[in-house]
Amino acid sequence: MLVTLMEPSGRSVGRVLSALALLLGLSCHDAAFPGRLDASDPDGGGDGGGNDAAVAVDEALFQEALALYDGALYPGALAKFEELLAGYPDSRRHDNAGYLAGRCRYALFDYAGAIAAFAELQRSHPASPFTDEARYFSGRSRLALADYVGALEDFRAAVVADPAGVYADNADYYVGRTCYEAGDLATAVVELGRFEVERPASTFLDNARYYLGRSYFDQRSYTAALGPLERVRLAPESTYLDDATYYLGRSHYALAERQAALVEFDRLLADFAASQYLDNALYYEVRIARDDGDCAAARVVLEELAARFPGSPYVARAQSYLVAGGC
């Protein structure tokens, strides 16, 4: 079972680019590869040795693979990294190549292969400086495969391996996010709430606030959901703004605060033309009008819903709600 996670990796990109960034494992912290792998570093991050001739050959092979990796030519890069791994077990680049081989497989959506590559890196190079990155991307791979137990173990291990590492806040966020995806909402509330307090400078802060709000909402703790969903707006470029706005409306509606809900649904319709929740919002505006006893207004909104989203399941649901209410 594959889980598609629409996770923005930065606040200023669109939703489609955000999804692509998530799937490729890129974040605001992540260039093509971490700085410790810079081609100008002749010693690399490895712990191997080797004679000068072998070093020259394996270094050239590594640089060739790295150029392909930087160009997002992952199949070719993977072949070169694996050639180095098999042919030069004592290379000072051996752990670098092992890590990037795993990253290639992750980028190619070969999550099981990525998990195996990262595990082999940890087995063959237990002192590698890439341990935290390997555990992070192993966790991301396991999360994509809905292996929530394994993902949690990896994310927590990534933070422990290097609490100040380039992926430490990412991994810490995904601890809470994994709990949410697994349906462990109570633990998600604890972990995401802790993240908000402990990592206020993280670029995943708006993500954490959104899923904290969703964790409360999904537990029907609607009042508790309002605060974190409101705080998503503290990041004005967050790609979760429309989602948060919609669930603010839903929370207010569940609390019978219909006018506050209407404000949020109106804001969603006015400010987020590309939101996936537009038909949902119109449906709830139909309900609000009917709940207020204004059948004529409810019919007007229903007509707009049917005209703009003729294939939406919310058209029939809105019609049924009006009929049930005597409109």
The shape is: elongated
Main sheet attributes: strand count, strand direction, barrel closure: none
From the N-terminal CA to the C-terminal CA, the straight-line distance is 43 Å
Rg from alpha-carbon coordinates: 24 Å
Low-confidence stretches: 1-50
Portion in helices = 55-70%
Approximately what portion of the residues adopt beta-strand conformation?
A: under 5%
Order of helices and strands: HHHHHHHHHHHHHHHH
| Number of helical segments with 4 or more residues | 16
Q: Compute the average pLDDT.
A: 87
* Structure class: mainly alpha
Number of strands: 0
Tell me what you see in this structure.
The protein is mostly helical. Helices cover 67% and strands 0% of the residues. The protein contains 16 helices and no strands. Helix 6 (131-144) packs antiparallel against helix 7 (148-161), helix 8 (168-181) packs parallel to helix 10 (205-218) and helix 14 packs parallel to helix 16. The radius of gyration is 24 Å and the shape is elongated. It starts with 14 loop residues before the first helix and ends with a helix. Residues 1-50 have low confidence and may be disordered.
Question: How do you describe this structure in short?
Answer:
Helix content is about 65%, strand content about 0%.
